[in-house]
Design goal:
3 helices; repeat; 2 domains; 243 residues; 5peptide_repeat; 16% helix; 4 strands; Thylakoid lumenal 17.4 kDa protein, chloroplastic; mainly alpha; Pectate Lyase C-like; two-stranded antiparallel sheet
């Protein structure tokens, strides 16, 4: 049996206001709204409340509507955290020459990470690639365990890329957009992030020895998290402004 308390207006139920910035939903009310805790039993036939047992508040219609909202909220609130916490990657692509797709990039999604099919670069080797990756859009690319050591990746767009365990030693990311990239356990020793956007990117257990952060563009909260990485050199910490 599920219970929910919903503030109800004096003359009816207001329409829910959905927002991506708030959990589930919120009810919009007018200044004349009268808040009365309403206990809804979605599995039984009774509708209990603290006061005003007659009229509209005791109708089956209100009960059904409230239960519907409760069910929708339960599904939406439970689904998203589970998806984020237990990310499942698709099977490794069997497409011939799949690694060469990086030289074309994601041609439809750009920074928002939308694609017609996954850009699967996992286990690919781009060591010392100096021309074919520069300025490409690799948004939402799957890069885990790939090798980019010594590559020129200036001006690349890697929004929402998954690069866990990948190797980027000595990679030049100057003027690149690395927005919301997962660099967990990646090797970024000597990587150059000059004038690079790092908003929302995560570096859990990443190796950042001798990485260059000159004029890096990063949010305050993201900076605080990045500064907890103990492998960043003193010079790198000074460039970032770590305290």
């Amino acid at each position: 049996m599920a219970n929910v308390s919903i503030p109800l207006p004096r003359n009816g139920l207001s329409i829910p206001n959905y927002s991506t910035k708030r959990p589930c939903f919120s009810f919009t009310t007018s200044p004349s709204t009268l808040h009365m805790p309403l206990k809804v039993s979605c599995s039984g036939d009774e509708l209990d409340k603290d006061e005003n047992k007659g009229g509209l508040l005791n109708s089956n219609g209100i009960k059904g509507l409230a239960c519907g909202f409760l069910a929708a909220c339960t599904v939406s609130c439970a689904a998203f955290p589970v998806t984020a916490a237990n990310q499942r990657l698709p099977p490794l692509s069997t497409e011939p020459n799949r690694c060469e797709r990086a030289f074309v990039g994601n041609t439809i999604g750009q920074a928002n990470g939308v694609y017609d099919k996954p850009l699967d670069l996992r286990l690919c080797d781009y060591t010392n690639e100096k021309s074919n990756l520069k300025g490409k859009s690799l948004s939402a690319a799957l890069m885990s365990d790939a090798k980019f050591d010594g590559a020129d990746m200036t001006e690349v767009v890697m929004s929402k890329a998954y690069a866990v365990g990948a190797s980027f030693k000595g990679v030049d990311f100057s003027n690149a957009v690395l927005d919301r990239v997962n660099f967990g356990k990646a090797d970024l020793e000597g990587a150059v992030f000059k004038n690079t956007v790092l908003s929302g990117s995560t570096f859990d257990d990443a190796k950042l020895e001798d990485a260059v952060f000159e004029d890096t563009i990063i949010g305050y909260i993201d900076l605080q998290k990045l500064c907890t990485n103990k492998t960043i050199s003193d010079e790198g910490r000074a460039e970032l402004g770590c305290r």
